[in-house]
Structure formats: structure tokens, C-alpha cells
Amino acid sequence: MVRQFEQEYAEQQPGILFLLLLLLPVDHTTPRWRSKEGNPSARTGISMMQTLFTILSGSAVILLLLYRKFPYFVQDVMHARLNIWISGQRAKFLQTMPYFTVLDRFLELAKKQPAKPFIIFEDELFTYGDGDLQSNKVARALRQHAGLREGDTVALFLGNQPLFVWLLLGLAKLGCAPALMNYGIRASPLLQCLSCTSAKVLIADAGVRGAVEEVLPSLRQKGIRVFILGEACSSEGLEALSDKIQQASDQPLSPQLRAQVKATTPTAYFYTSGTTGLPKATVSTEAKAWAAAFLLTHAHVGAQDRLYLTLPLYHMSGLHAGLHGITVVLKRKFSASQFWADCRRHNVTVILYIGEILRYLCNTPAGADDRRHRVRVVVGNGLRADVWRLFLQRFGKIRITEFYGSSDGNTALMNYPGRVGAVGKVNFYHRRVAPYVLVQFDPEREELVRDAYGLCVQVPTGETGLFLSKITARNPFGGYLNNPEQTERKKVRDVVEKGDLFLNSGDLMKIDEDGFVFFQDRVGDTFRWKGENVATTEVASILTMMDSVLDSNVYGVQLPGHEGRAGMATLTLKEGKTLDCSETFAHISHSLPQFAWPQFIRIQNDPELTGTFKQVKFRLVKEGFDPSTIRDPLFIVDPGRKTYSPLTQDCYDSIWSGKVKL
């Protein structure tokens, strides 16, 4: 089915042009139709042919006019057909009794193709059969030694490796949901992630043992059992897990252990910064997991493909590849220098990306082997138009499928025609099943613009507005686990008519007359850097923990040649205090993942406040970090020296010219 749609997509535009050529007006006089004079049947035949040619000629004109007005009509229809087919498949799974889970799909594949390579990792090959057996061992070890039962939550704190996948499958076999934590978080954000999901067990990699031990007293107080992936562990409060997995049986487990799983059952918890505050857990149900599983189907990826996965497995993007029966080449972490060599070595045909990955690849030195690969499709989000063009120019004819979506969102977009720079395309089908609006947003007041009737003001085609998606039974918003306040903040009421309900994406978008959607910016208290959402209030709260800081205002600033926005903090110091640059670096590097570090610091001891005593952020964002226009002291992060250094004009010019990358 996927291959059929791929072929139709590839051939549809030539098909339209060929049809138009067939229907072009024809000169009826050359060559002339010869008939005997006075032969009625001959004259009738000529008349019928002339009528037919007239109809065809008129049809050609109509089709040509329609094609000019709706150049993507065929692609819209094909994409709608694919969506309808996918909806039918999901409906079939939802109606199956007993319920057909995403795990059942994997077990079906493992039974059908046990010897097929499933994961290739650091020269090790694991088949689908291996995945089934290893996850049986994981499930049995956790059931016996951790006492897990259906409905329990287990926090996973580890990086990319096959055992991550075996843990996911093993937990699914027990009817348990994993809470997938960012491998880079530490201290209070780590505790917050564990608290908001009420995790019963924490499973951590040996590489983050220090971070776990730092918060271990709090974990023990909460009654959370901690398992470290290692053969032995002598520390009080920590238990080794690897040896227990190795000793466990690999025999299948009874489906009765997960007998209560249904469409609304949580399959995983993902963490998002959302619009403000510490990390919040959003729920992925079975129904939502099935929707995510079909992402690769939308991109025309099938069982014959090999997918190269360098994205962290705690991201939703990389979790469902195995449901397609494909082979996954799993990388511990992204490496630009090894990327194409890995692709050639393992015959990779599909890549999952975030925009930063493709930009890093374009920044590597050009080589004679740039186009020597078998990659035909890349799927992801956050790709800038200039990087898009450069990537194709350098690495050859590759289909780029950009999509837009989020773990806490209720709708998704896909740029199926491949328009450079667009995050998606809307069509007649999408408007019907997933209604949306773009509305005016006041960036200074950081609020929606409403008319005299209290309704949101929609923006015309081609203008920028805040993207709101309607909350319906078909497109629900599950909110954040145990966080009703933040859940409510994401909702917008009385948008198009009184009583309606929409979800605030926090993204400013623009939609052109062809229906292509272009990302413009983020609003509120979140910006995106290095492919991650950074919550400004979280960073600000960390900074204000320093003894010298009275208040902090965190925001994102644009940099040339970089995706997203770099973090910048304007600090107000306590009276008589000065900024200790080395101490500041030590504090933020200990408390925050690297993507959340402020790249720039500005000292402003007389900040501008609003009428409600909130710090003004809009003007600070506009002023950026130019030392020629800002009189306040400015600093830039210096990871090599583990400090913050004064930002000079030469340094600023080097950043702005692209000579220096952050």
C-alpha cells in the first residue's frame, strides 16, 4: 500500500501534463477527412468527431484553468486518500476485541519475520525475534524484582541503546507505562519529572549514576525504587538490574498481564516545557500512539527501508519505527563526521531529523562522496529554507518530508508536496477533520487580540497569526498529568464563536494561498534551541537561586545561521553584589541541560516593569546582544574555560557574520 502511494505521488504531476496534451485543441482541417459527396453517414461521422474534439478542447481549457488555480489538487486528493486509509486502519484496531495494541503489532511482526534485522547498534545486530526474547527477560525481571503490575509507571533515564527498546517492549508486556526523561536533566527538574508521573520505579543508566545519587534522599523519601543498569551495585538505595535481566527467562508472558489495555490507556509519558515552568508530563495513549506510528506511512516509508536514528529515544519521533517492520540503525548520539559513512555502511534509505541535524551536515567539509549514498527520504521538523536548499544541492535528490506536531498537541501537519520551507500543508480534508484558525496576537502584551464581541480576530491569508487547533472528540487534548493549571492555560475559549474551545500551540504561523504553512516564531515563555524547547521560567528560577541575583528575565534571541533562538538572561543583581562569571557557569551547568544554558547574560540593575510589575521582555528581545547599542554589561558563555566572558564588539561581529557558531 505504501509503495503504491509512493509511485502515485512520483508520477502525478507528469500525469496531469500528459492529460493536458491529449486534450489540447486539434486542427480539424489538416489532414482533411475524405468522404463521398452526399454520404449522410460520413457527414454524421464528421459532425460527431467535430463535436467530440470541441468537447475535449473545452475540457482541456477547463483542466488547464483548474490546474493553474489549484496546482496541488491531485496531491491534496492523494494525501486525503492516504489519510482516509490510515483512519480506517486505526478504526479497525480500535474496534478489535480484544483491543489490538501497538505491542500486538510488534509481536505480529516478530512472529512473521523473527530473523529480520530489527536494530543495528555499534556493530551488533538484533533481529525481531531477539527483541521479543530480550523484552521477555526484561519484563520477567521487573515483575519479579521490582514488583511491577499493570498500570504502574516506570521512569527511564538512559540514552540510546538496544536495552532502551527492550525496556519499552518489556514494560508494555506488563501493561506499564514508561516516563521518558531527557537524559540531560539534573537536580530539581529531575525530581519534578519523577513527581508529576508518580513513578514507582526509576531505571537509570550507569552514566547518570552521579545525578541520581544527588537526589537519592528525595527519591527514597518518595518511596521510589532505583535500579542502575549494571552488574552489581553496593550503594545503599541503588539496586543493580543488568544481572537480574540476564538471569531471567525469555519465555513469553501471558497477555492477561495487560488485559485492561484499551485505546485510552497511557502507553508513555513525554515531558515538555510547554509554555512555562518546570517539565510537565503529557500522556500518549494507545490511540495517540497509533497515530504517531503512521508518521512514516505518510512519508511513504515501508518494510524494505533502513532507518538511521540519531534522535534520542525519549523523543516521540523515534519510538514507533519498529511497527513498520523496518530495520533501524540506532546511534548512541549524533555525529556529523560519522553520519554519511554510517549511512553508506548500513545501506540506510531513510533518516529522521530535526533541523539542527541537517544544518550540521551542511556545515561539514564538502567531499567527493557527498552523493554516494542510498538515502531517498528524510523525515523530520524544524528545517530552515536555506538549509533545505543547501542540503539538496549538496547531497542530491532526496525527498524531504517536513512535518509539524508536538507531544502535547492535538493536530499535526505535513508538507507532503515538498514545498521548500513549509512545515505543512492544509487542504479540504484537513480543514474538515482538524479545524484550525490563525488569530491576531499582541507580542507586547503577550495576549490574543479580540473584537467587540469578545471573539478572536482571524488574520487574512498570507499574514502571520497564532495557530490554534480546535479541541474535538476526534482531536482531544489530554493536558498535563497532575497539572490542571498548566492544562487550562493551553486552552482558548470563544475563538470563532461563543462556547468553542481551541488549543494554543504557542506558534506564530503564516498560511499562503496554496495552503502551505510556514513557521514564523514562538510566543510566550518558551523558545526552541538545539532542537529542544526551553522554558524561560525554569531557567530564570535556576538563576535566581544564586546569592548575587535579585531577579532574572530569560528569553530567546535570534542568531544568523542558527535554528531557533539562543537563550539570553537579563539579570538584576542584589545591592553591592557583582557577577561571578565562573560561579555562574558552574551553577547553570550543574542545574540545567546544555541546550538550556543562557548563551548571553546582560546585567540590568534598573529593569523596565509593566503596570503589573512584570519585567518587559519584548524590548529586550528586540535589542538582542549588540554591545554597540547596549550600554549594560554583556557576557557570553565560554564552555572551554568554564566561565562567562565579556562580550566584545569583535566577538559580536564574528557571531553575526557567521564566523563563530554557538
UniProtKB/TrEMBL annotation:
GO cellular component, one term: endoplasmic reticulum membrane
The name this protein goes by in its record: long-chain-fatty-acid--CoA ligase
Catalytic activity: a very long-chain fatty acid + ATP + CoA = a very long-chain fatty acyl-CoA + AMP + diphosphate; tetracosanoate + ATP + CoA = tetracosanoyl-CoA + AMP + diphosphate
Coiled coil, from the record: none
Keywords assigned by UniProt, alphabetized: Fatty acid metabolism, Ligase, Lipid metabolism, Membrane, Transmembrane, Transmembrane helix
The keyword Flavoprotein is assigned to this record: no
Lipid biosynthesis recorded as keyword: no
InterPro entries: AMP-bd_C_sf, AMP-binding_CS, AMP-dep_synth/lig_dom, ANL_N_sf
Upper taxonomic lineage: Eukaryota, Metazoa, Chordata, Craniata, Vertebrata
Family designation: Belongs to the ATP-dependent AMP-binding enzyme family.
EC number: 6.2.1.3
Stretch forming the signal peptide: none
Residues passing through the membrane, by range: 45-67, 163-185
Gene3D superfamilies per the UniProt record, alphabetical: 3.30.300.30, N-terminal domain of ligase-like (3.40.50.12780)
Domain AMP-dependent synthetase/ligase: 109-426
